[in-house]
Backbone:
C-alpha cells in the first residue's frame, strides 16, 4: 500500500471523534513492510522410487 | 548510502545479479532403488563469478566460436543474501536447524556490519524501488549453480543487479575474503 492509498483511506474514514488516533495512525509507516520481507532458506527433501522402463534385454 | 542497482535485465547472467528463490542441491543419493535429493532453497542470492567470464561463456554458447568450448563455464558462483533483521537475531538459518551468532544492531558488531568492516559479510541497503529489505551477503556460504540453471533462474526470478561500482566493491571484498591468510587459533 503506497502513501496515496493510505491517504485516501484515511480521509474517507476520519471522524471528529477519533481524529487523534487517526492522526497517529497516519504518521506511522505507510509502507507495507510485509512486502519487503525476505524469507529464510529452507530445505526440501525429495524421495523417489527409481523405476526401469527398459530392461535392456531387447 | 543505499546501494545503487539496475532494474533492467540483461539477457545473460552478470556479476552482481540478485536472483530470487535459488536452489542449491545438497546431495543426491540412491539406495535400494530409492532416490533421495536434498536441496536448499535460498530466497535471494547474488552472483559473484567474474563478469568477463560470464560474458565470454554467454558469447561462446550463443555465437559458436568455430567449435571451441574454451570459454565455457561449468558453474556460476553465488552467495546467499540474508535479511539483516533475521541475521542480527541469529535466526536466518533457523529453518535449516542451524543456530547462528546473533549480532547486536546498536552496538559495535552491528555498526561493523553496516560499514562493511567485517570481511565475511557485505551489507547491502537496497533502494526502495527493489522492495527488498536491508540485507547481508555471507561470503562464507558461497556455492555454485549450473550455468543453464542460473540463466533460467535469472530469466524468471530476477530481482535487480548491483550497479557497476557497487558490484566491483562486492567482487573485491569477496576476493579479499577468499584469499585471506588463515591464522591458527
Residues:
Amino acid at each position: 500500500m503506497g502513501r496515496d492509498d493510505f491517504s485516501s483511506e484515511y480521509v474517507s474514514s476520519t471522524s471528529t471523534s477519533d481524529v487523534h488516533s487517526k492522526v497517529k495512525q497516519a504518521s506511522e509507516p505507510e509502507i507495507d513492510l510485509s512486502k519487503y520481507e525476505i524469507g529464510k532458506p529452507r530445505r526440501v527433501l525429495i524421495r523417489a522410487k527409481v523405476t526401469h522402463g527398459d530392461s535392456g534385454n531387447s | 548510502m543505499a546501494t545503487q542497482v539496475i532494474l533492467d535485465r540483461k539477457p545473460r547472467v552478470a556479476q552482481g545479479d540478485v536472483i530470487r528463490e535459488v536452489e542449491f542441491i545438497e546431495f543426491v543419493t540412491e539406495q535400494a532403488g530409492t532416490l533421495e535429493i536434498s536441496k536448499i532453497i535460498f530466497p535471494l542470492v547474488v552472483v559473484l563469478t567474474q563478469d568477463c567470464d560470464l560474458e565470454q561463456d554467454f558469447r561462446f554458447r550463443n555465437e559458436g566460436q568455430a567449435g571451441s568450448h574454451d570459454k565455457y563455464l561449468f558453474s556460476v558462483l553465488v552467495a546467499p543474501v540474508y535479511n539483516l533483521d533475521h541475521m542480527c537475531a541469529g535466526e536466518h538459518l533457523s529453518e535449516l536447524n542451524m543456530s547462528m551468532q546473533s549480532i547486536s544492531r546498536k552496538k559495535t558488531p552491528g555498526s561493523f556490519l553496516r560499514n562493511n568492516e567485517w570481511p565475511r559479510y557485505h551489507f547491502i541497503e537496497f533502494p526502495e524501488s527493489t522492495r527488498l529489505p536491508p540485507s547481508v551477503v555471507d561470503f562464507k556460504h558461497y556455492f555454485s549453480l549450473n550455468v543453464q540453471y542460473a540463466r533460467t533462474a535469472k530469466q524468471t526470478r530476477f530481482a535487480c543487479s548491483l550497479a557497476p561500482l557497487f558490484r566491483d566493491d562486492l567482487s573485491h571484498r569477496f576476493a579479499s575474503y577468499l584469499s585471506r591468510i588463515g591464522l591458527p587459533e
User: Anything to note?
Assistant: The helical segments of chain A are 3-13, 19-27.
